[in-house]
Every structure is written in C-alpha cells, then in structure tokens.
Amino acid sequence: METTNVQKATKNIMVSFGTQVILLVFKFIVQTLFIHKLGELYLGVNGLMTNLFTVFSFAELGLGTAISYNLYRPIADNDQPKIAAYMRFYKRAYEAIGLFVAVLGIGFMPFLHTVIKGDYVDGLYIIYALFLMNTISSYIFTYKRTLLTAYQEEYKNQLNLFWFTVVQMSLQSVVLFVYQNFILYLVIQVVCTFLSNFVISRVVDKEHPYLKDHVDEHISKVEFGIIRKNVLELLGAKVGAVVLTSTDNIIISTFIGLAAVGQYANYLLITASITFVTNKTISSIIASIGNMSIKNSKDDNIKTFYQAYFMNYMASIIVSSCLMNLMTPFVRAWAGESYVMGFWVLLFTVLNYLIGQMRQTISAFMFAYGALQFQGLKSIVEALINLTLSIILVTQTNLGVAGILMGTLITNVLINSWFESYQMFRQGFKESVKKFLFYNWGHLLLATGIVLLVYKLTSYIELANPWLDLLATVVATLVLDVLFITILHGRNQYFKSVKHMLAKRIARKK
C-alpha cells in the first residue's frame, strides 16, 4: 500500500479501536443496570428482539459492501458524476429496503407469540413496535456512510456513532436507574439512531457537494448488472452469517424460554463486544485492501494477506484463551451465580468465536476483492444445516443451549473452514487454494489445542483470594499463550515480521 493508504488505514484502525473499547465500558454499565433493574426476562426479550430484527434486515445485507467495492475505481479516478450516480442508486435501494422491512415486521407481529415459550411479557407488542421503528430509522440517511468508508474515512463514521451512542447509553442508564422502564429505554434508542444518521448525512453533503450537482446521473445497465450480481452473492454470504450468529436466541426462546436467552445474553455480550471491536477494526481497512488490490502486484497482495492472517491468528488465540479462562468467573462476579452457564456452553461459545475470528482476514480480503461467486448457494446450504442441526440437538438431546451452539460449531467446521478460502484464492488471487487450505486447517487445530491446553494448565491455579486468583489466571494465560506461539512459530517469517514491527514501535516510543 502507498503511504497515504497506510496512514488512512492506521487512522481508521486507531479511531475504531479506541471508540469501541470505550463503548464496551458503557455497554457493560448499561447491561449491569439492566440485570439488576429489569432482570433476566427483559434481558431475554432484548436479546430475542435484537436477533429477530437482525434477521428481518437481511434484505440490506451485502448492498453497502457491493456499493463500496464499485466506488473504489471512480474514487481513484475522481469521477464525481459516476460517484453521484452510484449514491443515487444506493439511496433508492435503501428506501425500498426500509419499506420492505417495515412490511415484513408488521406482518410478523401477529405471530410473535410463536417464538416465545411460556413467558408473559407486559407491553410486548409496544416493545416490538419500537424495535421495528429503530430498524426502519436506521435506513434513513445511513446510505451516505458508505461513501465515507469508500474514501477510507471510516473514522468519521466511528466518531459519529461513538458520540451518539455515548449520549444514548448515558440517558438509558438514567432511565434504568430511576424509572426501571424498558419502553422509555427503547424510545431513547430510536431517537438517537435517527439523529446519528441525520448528522452524518449533513457531514457527507457538506464534504461532497458534487452529489447535489449530479442528481440526474444514472448508472449504466452493465454497472447495474454487476451490482445486482455482487449483491445477490453478498446477500447469500451475509444471510449465512446472520443464521449462524443471530438465530441462536430465537431458537433458545422458542424451545427453552426467555429466561435462558437472558442467561446466555451475558456470554453473548462478551463475545459479541469483542467481535464487534475486531470486526470494526478489520472493516476500517477493507477500503485500503480494495485500493491495494488495484495498485499492487499479486505477489505483494498475497504476502500482505499471509501477514494479516498470521497476526489475526495470534490475536485469536490470545483472546479465545482469555475468554475460556475468564468468562465464567467474570460472569459470576459481575451478574451473579444464577447467570453462570455450564462448561459445554462456555466451550462451544469460545470455539465458535475462535473459528469466526480466524475467518476475518479471509473475509476482509474476499469482500475487498469482490470474490463472491457461489456465496449465495453456500449460505443457503449453511443456513439449512445450521438450523437443522441446532433444532435436532436442542429437541432430541439434553444439551439445551449447548446443543444449539454445537449445531453452529459443526456448521462452521463443515463449511466455513474451507469455502471462503477457496473463493479468495480462486477468484481473488487466481491461485491454487490447496496450500492455504492445509495451512488454515493446521492453524485452526493448533489454535484450538493451545486454547484447551492453556485452560487445563491454568485450572490448577487456586488462590484463597478470588481477585488474586483472577489476576494470576490472566497473567498465566497471556504468558502461556505467548510461550506456546513462540515455541511453535518462532522461526516463521510472519512471526519474525510481527516481532520486528513491535520492536520498531517500542524503540520509537523510547
């Protein structure tokens, strides 16, 4: 990448990482108040509704990424009429999607009781309506965020979301503490979502006035065909991801109950928050990858891919080990013993996180390159396998929530451990994927082995003081992870590259 791209990517990463870490603190404050003021039933409702409307929003999935990909070339050429044409198309598409989601959401309302087993929730339909309003409001103006992402200015999106989310969570904390009112809590969310999108829209209009100078521009039929093809493929890919990550709560609520959703919500918050931080960091550099793919040689791009993969691999091991060793004691200390779930829920949660995180570098390059053929078909198969396995395991075994998570894990292993790698190398790099497949599978097995071995070794730590015990576990986890990674990969060129980069940064700070 050129220096300018590196600088933009670095700025995007720093802002994304910094803002998301701060927001994590706010999320845990709000969740703590939620647990103590409203309880696990409403926590379960919140989790269920969030998953429901993630599923309802499938119509949008893939459009933003497809538009970003098509904007890279006109932005590089400073073709303002073409940029305006794409944005005009994007606006109309989002308006249609918002209308579709509204109709779908209203149509499902009479069947809401079918996904809630046994529990009565006061004001359920008002709660549902507010979630629907929040989802619809997210489609107003938000299409303009894509332009900032394509210009490698994702940090502006992140700062906008950061400040409005801080205001939202601050007001919601007051409402929970003083009024214990979930409906007012949701009203604040709807208002802040709308205002955030309105403000970012004004920012884009001010910085890109040419959008209003070319209001009559249209994309060509060929360009529309390319977008339609990419959107359909991306839609399939994103639907698969939604099924894997956003239907678990729906199945839990349908077959087990809202209380179980509330219990699992804390585990989900921890893993989802960490995933959100890492994914935001990765999405911040996708535009730079897309720019790089146009300007750099194939060999340079493949080398960059392997470096990024190895860095993500190391981070995945360390984070997964921390989750495996610390999540249960953290939930116990934070939410209470009644929210602690069994070992198998913990194990499958961590392994799903590990596999998902190991995919992120591959997915980032795949989307940036537009290597999306057959993603739709793959995701249909993925969705069917995941839903079938999860429902069978929750209804035909005594595993409960763990059975649902096990279904997701099996789906990840059967499909996602190889398919996206195949797509990236065959379509993106136009190289044989065989070497990388064995490389990837080997690293997945090594990562799993390290996580489980570190968990076993740290289980022998037993100190009388619980806080000292927790601190000792944290230190031991980090030391053991670094030790095992160094032993296994010390001579690896990408390990040496990471070590050299860290040494340079440390020397620069001295």
Write a concise synopsis of the structure shown.
The protein has 510 residues and is mainly alpha-helical. The protein is built from 21 helices and no strands.
Task: Tell me about this structure.
Helix content is 83%, strand content 0%. The protein is mainly alpha-helical and 510 residues long. The chain has a domain at 1-257. The chain is globular and about 70 Å long. The chain starts with a helix and ends with a helix. The model has no long low-confidence stretch (mean pLDDT 87).
Characteristics of this structure?
single chain, 510 residues, mainly alpha, 21 helices, 83% helix, globular, Lipopolysaccharide biosynthesis protein, transmembrane helix, cell membrane, membrane, Poly_Biosynth_Transport
Please report the total strand number as a whole number: 0
Order of helices and strands: HHHHHHHHHHHHHHHHHHHHH
Q: Name the poorly predicted regions.
A: none
Helix tally equals: 21
> What would the average pLDDT be, to the nearest integer?
87
> Given the C-alpha coordinates, what overall shape results?
globular
Distance between the termini: 27 Å
Fraction of residues in H or I helices: over 70%
Rg, rounded, reads 23 Å
* SSE-based structural type: mainly alpha
Instruction: Quote the beta fraction.
Output: under 5%
Largest sheet: none
